Amino acid sequence: MVIGSQSGNVQLAAGTSRAGFAAGGVESLRILRGVVRADGRTVPDNPVGYKVTKPRDTTGIYDIEFTTPFPGVPGASVTQVFNSGQDAYGPYPTLGGDTKDNAVIIFLLAQKMRVKTGDGGGGWSNSDFSFIVIGPR
């Protein structure tokens, strides 16, 4: 059940213990998100809405192609995920990391984006990262 109110809030499953509110905005938006491992594999293995490739003979470069291009350039962000050789996706979290390690967006288009990851000294480095992309439907 969806109930609207004059305040603009949309409540989902009203009248149950699982009631919540839908996120809203002034435009209709689509959201993609993912986690990419240093070798270019994704978590989960078969992502929905995008595919990742590593250009040949490059270090720290990842292309993320949106399965369905956005009608305009979306907004996006990336963040490096540090795991120090441990399985950061398993039951044992790591305490490692360097605040100078980074992931940046080199370019962002309606159909894809390119990400560069680096080490604490500013050099290019294959690294795990997560991303989120939000744009018009």
Describe the structure.
This protein is mainly β and 137 residues long. It has one domain: Sandwich (Immunoglobulin-like). Helices cover 0% and strands 42% of the residues. The chain has no helices and eleven strands. The strands form three sheets. Strands 5-4-11-8 form a four-stranded antiparallel sheet, with no helix packed on it. A hairpin with a 5-residue loop joins strand 1 and strand 2. The radius of gyration is 18 Å and the shape is globular.
Descriptive key words:
four-stranded antiparallel β-sheet; 137 residues; single chain; Immunoglobulin-like; 11 strands
What is the element layout, followed by pairings?
Blueprint: E1 2-4, E2 10-12, E3 20-21, E4 29-36, E5 42-43, E6 50-53, E7 61-66, E8 75-81, E9 102-108, E10 112-118, E11 128-136
N- and C-termini, Cα separation:
24 Å
Over the alpha carbons, how many angstroms does the gyration radius reach?
18 Å
Q: What percentage of amino acids are in beta strands? A: 35-45%
Label the overall shape: globular
